[in-house]
Amino acid sequence: MENKDNNKSVLNFLKKEGFYVILFVCLCIIATVTAITTKNNKKVDNSPKTTQNQKADSNKPDGSVSLSQKDKEINNAVQVKQNEDVKKADTGMQVSTEKEVSVSNSSQPEFIKPVEGEIVMKYSQTPVWWETSKSYRPNFGINIKANVGTPVKAVASGEVKSINENGSFGTTVTIYHPESGKATVYGNLDKEVKVKKGDKVTQGQEIGKIGKTSLRGMSEEIGNNFLHFEVLKNLKEDAQYSSENPEKYIKY
Question: Tens digit of pLDDT for each residue in 183-202?
Answer without folding.
Answer: 999 999 999 999 999 999 99
